Amino acid sequence: MVKxxxxxxxxxxxKKNFCLVMLLIFFVNLFFLWFLSQPGDFSPGLSDYKKLNQxxxxxxxxxxxxxxxxRHEEIENYSVVAEMLNLRSRSDDFxxxxxxxxxxxxxxxxxKYHEKYLSGTYLRYTNSLEKESxxxxxxxxxxxxxxxxxxxxxxxxxKKENLSGISIFAADTTSFAARNMEKESEDxxxxxxxxxxxxxxxxxxFALEFPVSDLLLYLAVLFFGGALIYEEREKKLFLVTFSSxxxxxxxxxxxxxxxxxxxxxxxxxxxGSDFAWSFASAGFVxxxxxxxxxxxxxxxxxxxxxxxxxxxxxxxxxxxxxTFGTLLLAAAIAFRQNFMSLLSGGLCLGxxxxxxxxxxxxxxxxxxxxxxxxxxxxxxxxxGGYLNLNFFGTPVSRLAATLLFLCVVCAGGVFSSIVLFxxxxxxxxxxxxxxxxxxxxxxxxxxxxxxxxxxxxxxxDAYGGLFRxxxxxxxIMHRSIVILLLFTVFIxxxxxxxxxxxxxxxxxxxxxxxxxxxxxxxxxEAMIEREQARYEKAxxxxxxxxxxxxxxxxxxxxxxxxxxxxHRETAFYPAFQKILAQCEWIRQTGDGQFxxxxxxxxxxxxxxxxxxxxxxxxxxxxxxxxLAFSCTFAxxxxxxxxxxxxxxxxxxxxxxxxxxxxxxxxxLLITVVIxxxxxLQVAMHCPMEHLGASTMNLxxxxxxxxxxxxIMWIGIVLLMRILVVMALIMLVLLISAKLKNQLITMCxxxxxxxxxxxxxxxxxxxxxxxxxxxxxxxxxLVA
Length: 783
Hints:
This protein is an all-alpha fold and 783 residues long. 72% of the residues lie in helices and 1% in strands. The protein has 36 helices and 2 strands. Strands 1-2 form a two-stranded antiparallel ribbon. The chain is globular.
């Protein structure tokens, strides 16, 4: 079995397509390392930290905190000078008073630092005062924390003594809070012998907290885990290895070992490049120093060196990947369809991310937040922090619980893979079909029989032409219809079933705008004036009461009671200001209308909810098109059908043309259905009237001077979304035609089409421009 492991590795790493995908993943990771290490408008880059690290290396370890304090004080004084000069450039009384206050607060600072500030030579590490101040402030704060590590331990022990002295906490020794406090005190008691030496944490934290690498690692395992089974299943190679139980066990054992070796290789490759880049860009740290020498990981109770901490991180990430890979391997054996292991892995990661994002860290069920494939991958927090999980009132170390979770799930995945493989279910050597599969096969046979009888009796084409034949192959033979229906129903259902929250202010705005809807008339103008007079009267009363409080004629409590009804009355004034702005615009132009715009802004993506819906739709549609159509051009190549068809070059182009027509029409239909569900979702909560009114009635389009009927503009937005979906399909088809392999097509297309919007959803705004999402959100692109 052990001798077969190198063979299983070479089967994939020795292939050109597989190596190209791995190289693409590696270079994508390198590109993001370069991009994210660049300085921002207000944040320093890694190269700036390297300059500071070089200066720190020339200072005695015991004097670094004092040296940083001096540098921090200097840069803060330069900030005071900059603020004074800014105030002097203004001529109002307030600026003069502020300048006087700053001069009194910082005597002699302006005279001492003014000349050097003007020369610009005070900047040592960055190119702006804001960046230099932010960097020195952060690093100085980190070094202070490490220098005060002994005080940190004393505070923990003191907190326990203080809480134990309170009768309520002293009596309650069985609660989670009491047990957690006791365990925390015991764990940190063993750390008193640790003597940390403060180090610059940026080179380590940047590499370990790099989210792109984790996404790419999961993608690499998603690609490899399913490929271990699918390729041999399609080529029916298991007929050779299923001759004996020993042969079956050796095969699955070798595949499991190859999976473990693959996880180690890609982890050390990607994170090795992360560390190399980070250390080369930001400078090195003393790897033999205690882990607590790095401020972000000072709370850890592990007695590790920084180097040991880094190695432990990589091994733990590899274990997480291997555990995830064993589940993919089991799914690949259990299902015949190539996409099922990818779909299972995607659902697993999606559920994990959802649990991690919605469950608070201090809740009673926080173990659900951390014991999943999203929480366990954050190994820097796992090994560099301190947290006890609440298991039914008992505090359990997060690290211990995570290791137990990974071991149990990993053992379950390996055991399931071995049992399923030994049974031979859904493999070429034992193709026993489930009842559902038998029923599906029977329906196909009966349908084919009926079509052949029609052809014989009436001389009709069994499939109604090449278009219908290709539709049959894509939708029925490869079951793409199942994926398309599932995604369409899911996206449409989430639109229709999830309501938009209407606040009290929005409800007031909606009522007013629906009453004012249409052209501006004298009656509507009088109504607005009455409402404005009501608000002005309320604000006058508020000002009068606040004056009485300031003069001491009434006390604060009585004044607050008098102000409360007026504050309630003016709570919706910001919404009324939008009405006033609309009214003023109509008066100026003379041809505008009152249009309740909230629904249109939601649909077109200007509001937060509408933009989030568009982002979710784009990601799900891209994933749907990849899963459904990745086999479209690869199906004939994978089974050698072109040799059977013996198609000419012209005939082959006709077949491919019909495939493109089928997929394009499918994308068009799905996009229209989803957009219709989106319109229905918005219309159920925010009426959309006056579809013939001009887009100029919507404030975002006035600056762009976009003047056309709203219904026409909505149609154009829908058309752009259809074109984007068609472009996604064409990219998938192009990759499928070039690579001639469904699994590689899914992985590469996912890397190019799904990863950028996912990174944008994670907060990396620059990734949006690397996708077609801006065009998909065409309603906001023009404005």
